[in-house]
Each structure stands twice: as structure tokens, then as C-alpha cells.
């Protein structure tokens, strides 16, 4: 199975060094390779632009910029490099590539005053001032330059990472950061790209394969991963020829209350579309008829309470439990969850009000079975683990919380994060803003619960569920538009998602 790693920027030197020594390739040739694929991508996005201004620093990111300038110049385009390194010594490879550009007649202009600097009108600005190794806020002259760039109307494209943005973004950054419209990053995304607070700087980003050595990419340890179809589809269990409803699992969903009936329906639709052999719905008495009419495939058992969940008596035929969507936070429901967690040690996913009850009744956290899956949105996670200073701090809290309680935590967002008891984090790459609608999380609960019941391990169920949920949202947005996408549309597109994954797996096996 292929995992796509997100390495720390402090690992870059080792990855490059191994590639240089074992391919083998010179550092200059590796820089040429990276700048070449960047230039190809740049011209795909700006095929009609003829004026490019390269903003070059003194390090290897600046060296990339000089190579890009030379390649554009060779194509007959109008290219100008602005040197923003003053009296600083250039890195050896940067110096060589600056000389190569100058020797072929390229134009380099030294800039010493940010206020007097003016790029060419209608030019595309290529940011090559700082690379991924930056470990301090940018202030002073270069800070002034970055602020000047951000005030300009020009399109800005960053090489590898926007200047001023630290790859791990681990702490307060009071310095200046380039606000790029596009970032073309080398080999893998930087961790900072995954955080909502950095979207203003990164813009639209894409990964460029610069062919770092496959051995070092495979064997070098990583804590962070991003999800792709290959990595996810390979985890999906395919039912055997003689599978039947008894072998594909019985999912118990505990959902809904009198004032939130729809949550039960949406979670049920997510589950029924995700491969469970049987779906049992435990709902308050007042919801029985609604479930029968909305989800006729579901078996319905009613609670002793007319309006709320108060407890479940028989769990003997259940392979996985999903609880939380729309159940409310009444004292009787809190006691029902306490009783459930006191006896159930199997697979379980908790969402929504179940999480709010965990947060307000700390003793319940200690009752969670090992391997439980929690699916909070950021506010629900804050109630569980406390406020965070920034997104990186939240990521650390998330990882610590999952390790401490030996559970899997799915923090929902633009790049939903799955944190494991082993300290690993997986970032999802599917989904769109059209999914930011009430009920979308209820559908996810049903998906994950069904995957658990049908035989998937908790990590696999979380990863597959999150990826499939986002992909279903993407398919719904393609058809309905993001504004017109409803939570129910996500559930309805799940069949196409599973078909796509199954087809992908069959093609890989041929």
C-alpha cells in the first residue's frame, strides 16, 4: 500500500542529500530538474503571459528562481530578475545559476529600497526569495519587500513555498509572508498548507514530482500523510462471492431526538450506502414511523423514552455502534451513554451530541473503548481538549489527545485530519466548501459506522470514510454546484464513490 508522506522541512536536506549521493545526481542538476518542472507548470497556468519578474533571494530558492528565469528567457519570453539579496553571500548553486543567466544576456537588477522598487506592468511575479528552510520571521528590508508585493495587483506564483511561511508554522509568526495566488511545491505538500490560517498565503497549490530517490521517500520516517485514491482504495475490503448480510455486519446507529429527527435519517442514509449487511436504528419512540418511511432498509428498535435516547438493552448481534447525531444532551441521554460505554468494548464511532456529552462529563472519556473513533468539528474538539493558539497548536493537541486516550480522532475541516493512537496524522484531500452544511457530519458518522461493522479496522474505516465522504461531496458539487449541495446529496453519491474505488482496485490487480 502506498502512503503519501508529508515530511518536515528539517528533513529536506537529508532527502536531497540521499538523492544526490544515490541516484547519483549533482545538486545543480537536481535544482535544474526542480526548476524545469516548475517552469512547465507555470506556463500551463500562464500560457498567454509574456512578461515574468523573478524575485530572487540568496539561497537555493533564489537559485531555483535564476534557473526559471533562464528557461523562460530561452523560450523568448520577457524575463527580468530582481536581486533581493544585497550584500549577502549567495549559496554556491544560487551563484552558479545567477552567472549562467547573466552570461546568456539575462537582466538582473539589484534592489536596495523596497519603496522604490516597481515591477513591470502586467508581469507575473515569481517568488523565489525564501525557501522551505526558513526558521525565523521575516522583518526589515525583506519584510518591506514582501509587504510591497502583497500590495501590488500582480499575479504571484511561489516556488515551493511562499516566502516568509514556515513549513511547520510552529508558533506565532509576526513576520511578513508572501500572499501567493499559486504555489507549486516540490515532491510533497508542506504541513503549513493544511491549515486554514495559511490559505491566504498559499493560494491554489499543486505538487510537482522532482523525482527524489524512491528509496529515501519510502524508508525515511514521517508522522504526517496525505490521502490519495491509491492510498485509500487499497484499504477497502471487497466482499467475497459468498458474502451475505450476516457476514457484512450489523451496524447499530443511535441517533435522533424529537427536535432533531433529520440527523437520524441522514446518518442512516450514509450507513445504508456504505456496505453494511444490516442497519439497526435505535431511536426514540416518536421517530419510529419517520425512519420506516425515510430508510425502509433499516431495522428499527425504539427507546423506552418517547423523545430521547436513554439506553440500549441488547448489543449481542451488533458489530459496530455509531452514536451522537441529533441525540441531544439531556441528563437521561448522558446516563444512556454512560451505560452503553460501560458494557460495549467493540467498535464505535461517536459524533455530535455524544461528543458534547463527553466534554461535559469528563468521566465518560475514561469509559471509551480502545480504538474508538471520534469525529468532532473544531468547536467540539475545543470543548474536549481546550482552546488552541493556532492551527499547529491544535494539531499537537489533536495528536496528544488521540495518544492519551488510545483512540482515533477525526477533526473535520477543509483538510480533515485523522489522528491515531500511534501519533500519526492523515490529511484528507477530497471535499469542498459546499459540504459546509448542516447534516454533512451525520452522513459521515453513518459511513464510518458501516465500514466498522463490515470488517474494517478503525483506522481504515476512518480514512476510507473521510475520503469517500469528501469525494461524494465533490461529485454532488459537480452536479448541483457547491451552493446547491445538500447533506442528503452527499449520501446519494456514495454509490458512485464505492464503484469508483472498486473499479480502481480491480484495475490495479490486473
UniProtKB/TrEMBL annotation:
Residues 228-501 form the YjeF C-terminal domain. Gene3D superfamilies: 3.40.1190.20, YjeF N-terminal domain (3.40.50.10260). HAMAP family: NADHX_dehydratase, NADHX_epimerase. Binds 1 potassium ion per subunit. InterPro entries: Carbohydrate_kinase_pred_CS, CARKD, Nnr, Ribokinase-like, YjeF_N_dom, YjeF_N_dom_sf. One of its GO terms (molecular function) is metal ion binding. It holds the Pfam family Carb_kinase. Its EC number is 4.2.1.136, 5.1.99.6. (6S)-NADPHX binds at residues 60-64, 131-137, 160, 263, 326, 377, 442. SUPFAM superfamilies: Ribokinase-like, YjeF N-terminal domain-like. This is Bifunctional NAD(P)H-hydrate repair enzyme. The keyword Thylakoid does not apply. Catalyzes the epimerization of the S- and R-forms of NAD(P)HX, a damaged form of NAD(P)H that is a result of enzymatic or heat-dependent hydration. This is a prerequisite for the S-specific NAD(P)H-hydrate dehydratase to allow the repair of both epimers of NAD(P)HX. GO terms for biological process: metabolite repair; nicotinamide nucleotide metabolic process. Homotetramer. It catalyses: (6S)-NADHX + ADP = AMP + phosphate + NADH + H(+); (6R)-NADHX = (6S)-NADHX; (6R)-NADPHX = (6S)-NADPHX; (6S)-NADPHX + ADP = AMP + phosphate + NADPH + H(+). Its cofactor is Mg(2+); K(+). Residues 12-218 form the YjeF N-terminal domain. It comes from the Bacteria. PANTHER family: ATP-DEPENDENT (S)-NAD(P)H-HYDRATE DEHYDRATASE, ATP-DEPENDENT (S)-NAD(P)H-HYDRATE DEHYDRATASE FAMILY MEMBER. Belongs to the NnrE/AIBP family. Keywords: ATP-binding, Isomerase, Lyase, Metal-binding, Multifunctional enzyme, NAD, NADP, Nucleotide-binding, Potassium. The gene is nnrE. AMP binds at residues 412-416, 441. K(+) binds at residues 61, 127, 163.
Amino acid at each position: 500500500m502506498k502512503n503519501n508522506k508529508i515530511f518536515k522541512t528539517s528533513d529536506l536536506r537529508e532527502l536531497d542529500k540521499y538523492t544526490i549521493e544515490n541516484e547519483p545526481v549533482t545538486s545543480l542538476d537536481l535544482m535544474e530538474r526542480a526548476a524545469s518542472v516548475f517552469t512547465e507548470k507555470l506556463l500551463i497556468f500562464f500560457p498567454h503571459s509574456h512578461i515574468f519578474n523573478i524575485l530572487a533571494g540568496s539561497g537555493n530558492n533564489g537559485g531555483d528562481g535564476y534557473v526559471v528565469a533562464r528557461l523562460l528567457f530561452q523560450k523568448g519570453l520577457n524575463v527580468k530578475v530582481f536581486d533581493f539579496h544585497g550584500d549577502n553571500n549567495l549559496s554556491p548553486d544560487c551563484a552558479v545559476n545567477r552567472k549562467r543567466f547573466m552570461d546568456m544576456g539575462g537582466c538582473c537588477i539589484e534592489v536596495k529600497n523596497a519603496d522604490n522598487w516597481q515591477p513591470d506592468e502586467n508581469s507575473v511575479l515569481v517568488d523565489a526569495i525564501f525557501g522551505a528552510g526558513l526558521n525565523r520571521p521575516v522583518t526589515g528590508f525583506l519584510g518591506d519587500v514582501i509587504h510591497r508585493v502583497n500590495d501590488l495587483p500582480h499575479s504571484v506564483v511561489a516556488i515551493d513555498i511562499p516566502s516568509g511561511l514556515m513549513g511547520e508554522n510552529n508558533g506565532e509568526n509576526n513576520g511578513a509572508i508572501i500572499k501567493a495566488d499559486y504555489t507549486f511545491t516540490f515532491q510533497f505538500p508542506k504541513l503549513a498548507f493544511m491549515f486554514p490560517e495559511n490559505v491566504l498565503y498559499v493560494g491554489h497549490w499543486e505538487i510537482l514530482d522532482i523525482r527524489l530517490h524512491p528509496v529515501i521517500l519510502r524508508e525515511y520516517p514521517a508522522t504526517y500523510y496525505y490521502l490519495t485514491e491509491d492510498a485509500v482504495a487499497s484499504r477497502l475490503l471487497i466482499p467475497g462471492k459468498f458474502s451475505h448480510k450476516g457476514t457484512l455486519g450489523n451496524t447499530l446507529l443511535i441517533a435522533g431526538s424529537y427536535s432533531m429527527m433529520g440527523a437520524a435519517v441522514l446518518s442512516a442514509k450514509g450507513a445504508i450506502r456504505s456496505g453494511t449487511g444490516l442497519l439497526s436504528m435505535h431511536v426514540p419512540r416518536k421517530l419510529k414511523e419517520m425512519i420506516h418511511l425515510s430508510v425502509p432498509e433499516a431495522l428499527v428498535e425504539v427507546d423506552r423514552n418517547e423523545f430521547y435516547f436513554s439506553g440500549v438493552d441488547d448489543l449481542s448481534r451488533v458489530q459496530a455502534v455509531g452514536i451522537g447525531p441529533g441525540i441531544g444532551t439531556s441528563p437521561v441521554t448522558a446516563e444512556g451513554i454512560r451505560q452503553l460505554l460501560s458494557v460495549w468494548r467493540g467498535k464505535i464511532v461517536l459524533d455530535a451530541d455524544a461528543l458534547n456529552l463527553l466534554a461535559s462529563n469528563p468521566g465518560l472519556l475514561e469509559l471509551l473503548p480502545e480504538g474508538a473513533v471520534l469525529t468532532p468539528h473544531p468547536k467540539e474538539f475545543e470543548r474536549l481538549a481546550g482552546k488552541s493558539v493556532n492551527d499547529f497548536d491544535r494539531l499537537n493537541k489533536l495528536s496528544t489527545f488521540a495518544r492519551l486516550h488510545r483512540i482515533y480522532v477525526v477533526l473535520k475541516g477543509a483538510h480533515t485530519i485523522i489522528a491515531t493512537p500511534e501519533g500519526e496524522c492523515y490529511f484528507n484531500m477530497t471535499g469542498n466548501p459546499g459540504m459546509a452544511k448542516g447534516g454533512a457530519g451525520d452522513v459521515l458518522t453513518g459511513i464510518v459506522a458501516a465500514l466498522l461493522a463490515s470488517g474494517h479496522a478503525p483506522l481504515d474505516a476512518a480514512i476510507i470514510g473521510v475520503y469517500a465522504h469528501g469525494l461524494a461531496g465533490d461529485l454532488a458539487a459537480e452536479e448541483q454546484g457547491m451552493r446547491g449541495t445538500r447533506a442528503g446529496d452527499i449520501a446519494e453519491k456514495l454509490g458512485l464513490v464505492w464503484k469508483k474505488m472498486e473499479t480502481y482496485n480491480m484495475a490495479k490487480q490486473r
